[in-house]
Each structure stands twice: as C-alpha cells, then as structure tokens.
Amino acid sequence: MPRFTVIVPAFRVQAYLHACLDSVLSQSFEDYEIIVVDDASPDACGPIADEYARRDPRVTALHLPRNAGLGPARNAGMERASGDYLIFLDGDDTLLPDALRAIADRLGATGDPDVLMYDYARTYWSGRSVRNVLADRLDERGPASFRLADRPELLQLLMVVWNKAYRRAFVEAEGFTFPPGYYEDTPWTYPVLMSAGSIAVLDAVCVSYRQRRRGNILSTTSERHFDIFDQYDRVFAYVDARPELAVWRPVLFRRMLDHFSAVYASRDRLPLPSRPAFFRLAAASCRRHHTPGAPAPLPAQLRHGLMRLGARRTYRALAASRRLGHGLSRGAAALRRAVRSAALQAHYRIQLLLPLRSRDAVFATRGHGAYACGPAAIEAKARELVPGLRTAWLCRPVHAHTVPTGTQPLAPGTFAYWSALARAKYLVNNADFDRRLVKRRGQILLQTHRGTPLRTIGTDLLDRPAAARDTDFEQLLRTVDTWDFALSANPHSTLVRERAYPSAYTTLEYGSPRTDVYHRTGPAEVARLRETLGIPAGATALLHAPAHRDYRRVQRPVLDLELLVRVLGPQFVILERAPRTPNGSGSRTRTTTHPRIIDVSGHPSPETLALASDALITDYASLMFDYVNLDRPVVLYLDDIEAYEAARGTYFDITSFPPGVVARSQDELFDIFATDHWRGSRSAQLRAAFRARFCPYDDGHAAERVVRRVFLGETDGLPLPVPPSARRAVLPAQQNPAGARAGG
C-alpha cells in the first residue's frame, strides 16, 4: 500500500499535464501512486496519461466515458485509490521539488492526522511566483495536531481541495465525495475540516498554483456559476444534520456572503443578462441561511446587508462609487486616444456600429506582406468551397500585384482597410492585426502562425531579453485574447503554443496549409518556377535560408556562399534568402554579383523557393519543418548553436533530432557536400523520422480542413489525414542532382 495516492483530474490541460506529472515523478519521496483521470478531454490529455502509464508502473490512466466535471472525476480517482493519504493535484498545477518528502515527514511528526494543510504559491504566466498572503495561518508552533475549533483562522485560507492531504480511512468512513458542478471544493472542504478529528499544518509551499490567464473554469463566462447556490445549500444541509456543528453556521454564513459578492463583482463570470437573477438568488440564499454573529468590516457588512435585502441597485451604486476615480482616469486616456486617432478612427468607430458582413473575410500576413503562406492557402480554398464569400487581402501597395483576381487588395491605414476590419466576419492572419482592432461579437479570428516553433516564442521569451528586446508582453496577450482559433501543424506546436500564448482559443491541429501546394505541384510547374528564378537547366539549386540572430544587432553573413559555390562546382547554384527580421522584412547580409548566387530575399513566397530548389541549407528557421514534406535533403549549418541557445533558446535539441546531416563548421559543410553525405541514406533516414514527428497532417488537405471547420462550421466529416505512405512527394526538376560528385 503506497503512502500517497495523487489524483490528477485532466480536462483541456494538455499544455500543462506533462509538467504536472513530471513534478510528481521527480519527487525525492517515491512511495506513491498517481491516478490520472481523463475526464473525456477533447485534447491530448488521454494519450499523455497513457504515455506516462506505459513508462511508469506507479501511474494509472483512468478514462471516463463522458465528461463529468472536476468533482466526479476526483470521485473516480478516489474509487481506485489505495494510498494511506489522498492528495489532489489539478492537471495545470505542479508539486514543488521535495514536496512529498516534506508532507510525509510532517505527517509522521504529527501522528498521522486526518487532514494536513500545507501552503501554495500562485505562479503567473510571467514566471512570477507569489506565496499565499495568509501563510502565517500555517504556523507550526503549538500542538502537533488539533481540531478546527482550536484554530478557526484556518477557514480564512483558500477553501480548495489541493492544499491538503487527507487520510483515506477518514474520508471513506465519513463518506465524503465531491458533488457535480462548479465550486465543487466548497461542499467538500468545509465538511472535511469541521469533521476532522485531527488537523495538522505544514508551513511550506508544496504546490505551484498556476494562474491561467484564460480558459480556467472560474474565469469562464457562464450560468454554471449559479451552481454556487447549490453547493452552499449542501454545506448548510451537512451542518444542519449534525447539531454539534451548529457553532460554525455564523462563520459559514459570513464566508458564503463574501463568496457571493466575489462572484457577482467578477466581470468575466456571469453573463450580463443573468446578473439580476444571480443577485436575486443570492438574496434568497442569504435569507434562507441567515445566521448572524461572525464579525465583518463595515464595508463588508454594508454589502452583505444590501445583498440580503436584494437591493441590487443600491449595491451597484456603492460599487460604482468605488470605481469612480479609476473611471475618470480611464476616460481621460480614452479621450486622448480618440484625439490621436482623428478621422480614420472616427470612421472605424462608425463602422463598428454597422452590421457585420457575414460573407466577408479579411486575410493578411506578417508586415502586410504579399499573398503567401498559410493565409493565402486558406483564402484560395475558402473562395473555392464557401459560396458567395468575398475576400480581401491586407498588403502594402508594393505587393498588390501578388493578390489574385477576385480578391480585393487593401492598403493599411485607408478608410477601406478600417471598414474591412470593422465589418468582416472572418479575420485571418499569421501575425497580429493592428493593435487598435476591436474584436466584435460575432467576428471570428483565426491565427495561422508561421510554421512549427523550434525557437522560443511568446511568453517563453520573458527571461530572454536579447530575443524579446522591446516586446510588450501585455499587448501580446491582449492580442492573443482576440483569437478564436489557432492553427497547429502537429502536437509539438500545439503544446508549445498553448503554453507560450495562454488564452481560451480553440487549437485546430489540422496541419500546415502552406504546405498544401507541395502535394499538387507537378514537375512541369517546378521547371517553370526554376526558369522564372533564373536557375540554369540541369543545375542543382541549394536554397540557403538562415534564421535571424537575436543576439546580433548587425546581421552578418553566417556562411561564405561565394566560397561554398566555388567548392561545389559549376553544377550548383545557390538561392540566397536573407533572414527575416522580427518585423517580417528581409535583412540583407551581403552584396554579391556571383553568377551562381541568386538573391531571392525579396521573393514573396518561400513555398515557391522550396519547390524550385533541390536541397535546403538552414539552421534554426521554421522552413525546415515544411521542407521535409518535399522529401528533399536538408543540411543544418550550426556554427553558433551555443550562442543562439543562450540568447534565443530552442524547444528541443535540434542536433539530437535533425531533419538531415549537421555541420558545425564551414569545413564540415564543404565535406558533407564533397562526400555526398547531404543526400545519402543517413540523410534520408533523419528526414523521414523528422517528417513523421512534425508533419502528421501535411497531406495537401490542411486548408480544406480549416475552411470546413471555421467558415462552414463542419466538425464531422473533415478530410482524414492521408497516411504518409500514400502521400506523393513532389519530384525536383533534377532527378539526379549534382550529376557528378562535388569538387573544386
């Protein structure tokens, strides 16, 4: 029998579940079992639980047939528990190192009490960790164990289930279970503490309580928050059935009023039309359970009295008076912004008052660039599949010629631009729209992203100032909060981005639409593209596409291409694509007139460049994840990986799992081409493994899946991923690239 059973309910926490389970499995105290309860989660929580269960016999994965909610999920875990003590850990929280050792030692020192209470710290998206402000209530001085009546101040602590360890025999003897619905901790925690024959405390932080910005239950706007009334009814019913507990009624009544007030004051919990009904039910509950006697500060007494009387208007006036000072300052700031916005913003505001155009869709790429990347693939497929759809492409005038016939090009900062942003139902981008965008009710915003992340992104850059530079993280997160859907090419991207861009959007793990073109382009079209770029017939074209170096203020050449092309010989040409800067433009690193080095930095479509090439030389650019779909060689040139890792960081070791052979110096790179290793069997094996991991849905139908889900509202019958063995690779123009061995 293990000392602890750690019960982890899991629902929509796939981005955090690995960290949660790893925090338990890495504990120095090892006498425990973990029961992960997959509450019919629609994301990858179930497979993650199964993965850990296969790896470690202490982990049990329990899958519920249908979503039951947090309380029933915990009950299911308790039914399978065999440990002396029950510990509940939510799937997005973590145990601190050595927490179980500290809990076990304290239980032994206090004679195995019915309940042990320990501390927690709130961990924010920024990485900042703040300990519970009432930690002094957990002072270990005094008797080792006690009854709640001896230390009633413990009821001032957060009444949650996960900051305590419970003796399983006590829980089973009392028949404690969790009810369904929101606020399920309330009718568990109060009865447990009031009934416990012995309680002990541990003055140590054991749990990291993740403060998810969006997506957690208690920040979800829903009428489910009305469940709070039933939960307190259960608490008072428990007390009423046990006369010896009547002494706790005044305290419970005061805590109930505080809880009701907190829910009503929260602007993101109750739907606006439901607020009057919530207040009426709160007043009825107060009258039903009215038990005076617990002292409260005067402002709280006033609020409680107004709530008990059902005086909602007076209650609102009291709250409004407290917000008046803040409102005046916000109004002044809004006035200044309105003055600066002038005519265009006035026009935009007027447009916001007009009805949405349900058949209008606006598309854009980073920096208002040319018609390219994922948004372009989705736009083309949407015009094909959605009847009557009118599309517009936001781009600078220099790129207007790239926009296809039938799609309206719109220049940023024009009246038509702001009209489109205000009234189009669909907004699609691989970057950010104007920060002044007001997301309207009914508008659907799809974020397509730009490839699979190897480099650190989003809020993960907080501790990397060289890479983050002047990033406004608050603004970034406000932008993320406007997303309805975020596109993901693979499970790796999903897990990284849901953590790096925390919010309540829906992830569509459908593949990368910008790779669809790879599956429908024939050799004749490839030959035409090569001719357009000026690639000589019969030549082997190497696409050189390095990444931007965050640690360098001035971007220097990462590779001597003129020397490389001389080493390779006359059969080779190099397509040079300068790194993209953070704003999306190309940063020129050299000026060359060598006839076999073709500058393609200004070319709008990396997909075209990939199709026209025979192999890719890169380092940390996300292009490699797309390129392997072509089943053409990839060579990584990583001469500065230590500096790059220190400044930017990566999500996995690219040298241990590369898409092709790796060179750490120019001499190694030259040797790789001289010996043909760049296109040998080892290169093919690495590429196949890389493609299997990162391209599971890149089958030519990614854009169709997106359009059917987002624009047509279809959730069933989406095109299933084509098995890799059945996918057709686009053949390069050169079936036998290089012709002869590379040489001087």
TrEMBL record:
One Pfam family named in its UniProt record: Glycos_transf_2
Protein topology in the membrane: Peripheral membrane protein
Cellular compartments per GO CC: plasma membrane
Any one GO MF annotation of this record: transferase activity
Localization annotation: Cell membrane
Record flagged with keyword Cell membrane: yes
Gene3D superfamilies cross-referenced by the UniProt entry: 3.40.50.11820, 3.40.50.12580, Spore Coat Polysaccharide Biosynthesis Protein SpsA, Chain A (3.90.550.10)
SUPFAM superfamilies cross-referenced by the UniProt entry: Nucleotide-diphospho-sugar transferases, UDP-Glycosyltransferase/glycogen phosphorylase
Keywords, sorted A to Z: Cell membrane, Membrane, Teichoic acid biosynthesis, Transferase
Highest rank taxon of the organism: Bacteria
Stretches for region Disordered: 579-600
Main location class: membrane
All residue ranges annotated as the Glycosyltransferase 2-like domain in the record: 5-112
GO terms (BP aspect): teichoic acid biosynthetic process
Biased composition (Polar residues): 582-594
Similarity comment: family membership: Belongs to the CDP-glycerol glycerophosphotransferase family.
Protein name: Glycosyl transferase
Species this chain originates from: Kitasatospora albolonga
